[in-house]
Amino acid sequence: MLTRSSPISGSWNLHITMAKQFTSTATPRLVRRVPVTRTRRVEAILGRDWKVALPFVLPMVVLMVGLIFWPFVNAILISMTTRSLSKVETFVGLGNYVRLWRDASFRSAVNNTIFFTVASVASKMVVGMTIALLLNSRLPFRNILTGIMLLPWIVPEVVTAMAWRSIYDPIFGGLNPILLNLGLIHRRVAWLAEPKLAMPSVILVNVWKGIPFYTMLLLAGLKAIDKELYEAAEVDGATAVSRFRHITLPGLRYVIAVTVLLSSISTFNTFGLVYLMTGGGPGGTTRLYSILAYERAIVGLRMGPGAAVALSMAPVLALFILVLARFMRRGIETETNETRVDRAFSAVGQVIGRVVGIVLWPFGALLDGAATLVTLAGTAFRGGRAATSQPLLRRATRERVGLSLRLLALVPMLVFVLFPFFWVFITAFKSELQIQQYTSLYWPKPWTLVQFQSLLFKTGYLIWFRNTVIVAVSTTILSVAFSALAGYALARLKFAGASTLTTVLLITYLLPGSLMFIPLYRILTNLQVINTYGALIITYPTFMMPFATWVLLGYYRSIPEDLEDAAMIDGATRLGAFVRITLPLAAPALLAVTLFSFTNAWNEFLFAFVFITSERLFTLPVGLQQLVFGDIYPWGQLMAASLLMAIPVVVMYIYAQKYMVEGLTAGSVKG
Predict the structure, then answer these.
(1) In 429-497, where does DSSP find H-type helix?
(2) In a domain, 570, yes or no
(3) Is residue 494 domain-resident?
(4) Is 258 within a domain?
(5) Which of 178, 259, 603, 623 could form a disulfide with 156 if both were Cys (CB 3.0 to 4.6 A apart)?
(6) DSSP three-state, residue 94
């Protein structure tokens, strides 16, 4: 019998007491659950950081919805209407689209656009690849040569058009005398007035303008390829052609795909360059679909048919944009499971690769031929003992010969790139008499500043310059500030829709101005801001902010997040960590997008041309066009104006060249 005082009974009582305590304390814990607060439910839906992310992304979202999404929807609605003689709009459904395909002018414009795009992109690919390979090799003054090759990209579009139009001029231009002296032509050719020559002439200018884009991205891709692969291949006896085919091209497949897609989209939607050079003539041979849309919507005041012309190409652009978005998101996505969509886009990528292979086939065949000729020459020189004897030339001699050949190949590229700059410069310092009398064609005699004096004191150039500075500086500040905030939120913060917003961001950047200017014109008219600074200041960020945000997003991801975490542990807020830690480290990317935004605002032509009608509000690209009276081109004034307009951008670019390349190519060569 157990007594109360026995050890066993004491232990038993202890167990009973503990069991009572356990049951008395554990049961309420199982019954009473911590209620889920409204804050946690909202965070579960909108994401952990939605409160912090909201002020970061709100300005960009408002811009995208108000000036991109709604105008695009508005364009669709406009394209389904037509205006009667009594100026009453009537809903016609798809009637405008049905009539387009029976319209010979529209079919001709589409054919012109396709030919212009294919020929330009293929030419830029071959020329850009050649220059990138040459600049990636051992060359003296390589940094200077690279900077020279990138110059056409920063030259304003209107300057490019005016310079080349002057060069092509059949009477006062500089191209005909060169070709006549070389015996390549036997009469003066009106390059932009002859139907068979106008399209090839504008394609050549588009290639000149697009060389820097290809060179910059392909050169960045070449630098990312491991040099040990080339060394191992060379040890195994691979020729230069084999190394190019089996190492360079596979290593550049992602860069080539992105570059070709981006270039195809921008080239397909070209407006300003062709319009300024030919106006779509002669006889419609250079009229692209974007020019036809402008003629019908703005010139002809037929908004419905004009919008239908612009939107008729939307399915083609949508395919390009979706494929490109998939390629560019590859660098930031973390999913590893391949879906049907992935396989579909992979197939599209293979098609693009094959097309690029076809385009580069002549390039490879040329290299093969050169290698064969060198081999045959060496064999003949050694009397057929090539397989057993020593190399024909010593290593040092081979390197000197290779350097000479590379420089020789680069010379025509340099002439092609630099000649328009030389022509603008010398023409700006000639008097009207020198130009008209065709004396001292390639050098001013004497040098004079009369064109600059006439431009500054007898035209509205200074007013146009002031307007351009106001618009460019205002839009650059807005675009960079909002992009810096939005890019940081997308890179660092967790909130619902971040991934979708990132993709939409890229798509909105790729939407061409030729699709947007018609609905934006109507919206700005209804808001009564048409023909004001505001019309440009609120619309320019539509094509500047998305790209700037995308570049900063990639750069922010390369900055270690631990630095911000340490700052916040020390008491800093998220905004404080962003301002004091992240922004200083992102200075190269910020400078790059600042230069990009300023350059685009400084050079923009389409929106300024459509939205501004008062001469006192003209920007420089529109103002320079006003110097032309009918068929009378004051080449001296135009070249002087082009030179002055290009100087600010060139100076900024030279000052920040390495940051520009570093910032814009951040993450673009990963694949």
Answers:
(1) 432-437, 450-458, 461-492
(2) no
(3) no
(4) yes
(5) 603
(6) coil
Residue in the structure block whose two tokens are 């300005």: 59
pLDDT in tens, 388-446: 445 555 666 767 777 788 888 888 999 999 999 999 999 999 988 888 877 778 888 88
Which stretches within 65-141 are classed as H helix?
70-78, 95-100, 104-136
Domain assignment present for residue 205? The answer is yes
Rounded CA-CA distance 141/59 in Å is 45
What residue has token string 């690279």? 146
| Beta-bridge partner residues of 82 | 90
pTM of the complete model: 0.78
Flag the least confident range among 199-203, 329-333, 363-367: 329-333
> How high is the pLDDT of residue 199?
95
The domain that holds 318 is classified in CATH as 1.10.3720.10
Is there a contact between 618 and 533 (Cβ–Cβ < 8 Å)? no
Integer Cα distance of 479 and 545 in angstroms: 5
Q: Is the dihedral of CA 497, 501, 502, 503 positive or negative?
A: positive
User: Per the structure, how many domains does the chain have?
Assistant: 1
SS3 280: coil
The 3-state secondary structure of 179-247 reads HHHHCCCCCCCCCCCCHHHHHHHHHHHHHHHHHHHHHHHHHHHHHHCCHHHHHHHHHCCCCHHHHHHHH
Query: Would you give the DSSP letter of residue 271?
Result: -
Beta-bridge mates of residue 629: 632
120, 207 Cβ separation under 8 angstroms = yes
Where are the alpha helices (H) located in 137-194, listed in sequence order? Answer: 142-149, 151-154, 157-168, 175-182
Residue 570, C-beta contacts closer than 8 angstroms, at least 6 positions apart: none
> Helices 635-655 & 450-458, crossing angle to 10 degrees?
90
How many Cβ atoms from other residues are within 10 Å of residue 583's Cβ? Answer: 15
pLDDT in tens, 520-539: 888 898 888 999 999 999 99
pLDDT at 328 over 80: no
CA gap 125, 214 in Å, rounded: 7
Count of beta carbons in the 10 Å neighbourhood of residue 142: 13
The SS3 call for residue 385 is coil
Phi, psi dihedrals of residue 81, rounded to the nearest 5°: -125, 165
User: What span, in angstroms and rounded, lies between the C-alpha atoms of 253 and 221?
Assistant: 9
Please name the helix (run of DSSP H) or strand (run of DSSP E) that holds residue 89, with its range, or none.
strand 89-91
Contact present, 218 and 255 (Cβ < 8 Å): yes
Q: Which domain holds residue 155?
A: 91-381+391-445
Contact of 137 with 406, CB cutoff 8 Å: yes
